[in-house]
Amino acid sequence: MVAVKDHAEGLAAIENGAADAYASDRVTLIGLGRKSKDVSKLSLSTQLFSYEPYGLMLRRGDADFRLTANRTLSRLFRSEDIVRIYDKWFGDLGKPTVALVLMYAISAVPE
Q1: Do 48 and 100 meet the contact criterion of CB atoms below 8 Å apart?
Q2: pLDDT-based confidence at residue 111 (cuts at 50, 70, 90)
Q3: How far apart are the first and last CA of the chain?
């Protein structure tokens, strides 16, 4: 095990051979991989160790905006637009995982 101070140092440890693996949440690892000097030398495990939901921060007490954001995201997750958005930004990484598809379905609560 090698201690690193931040994600950039973790990526550098992988690239220079000081470490064999680096663990973080999937979104962070995807972002790091895209910054790598040689992406072909990296691989992302398909093994999921946890579910890490993300959220949007908004002003406390702004119920109207929260409702608008929730409705918009719900509508997006029910539509084919989410597939196009995923393909645009992450399509080169392959298909969405089963966990991600299920998250879309759970988050697609009708209005």
Answers
A1: no
A2: low
A3: 48
Give the pLDDT confidence of 47-91 residue by residue, as tens digits.
878 777 778 889 999 999 999 999 999 999 999 899 999 999 888
Three-state DSSP string of the chain? CCCCCCHHHHHHHHHCCCCCCCCCCHHHHHHHHHHCCCHHHCCCCCCCCCCCCCCCCCCCCCHHHHHHHHHHHHHHHHCCHHHHHHHHHHHHHCCCCHHHHHHHHHHCCCC
pLDDT of 25: 86
Nearest to 76 by CA among 49, 52, 105: 105
Q: Which tokens is 99 given?
A: 């966990």
**pTM beyond 0.85, yes or no:** no
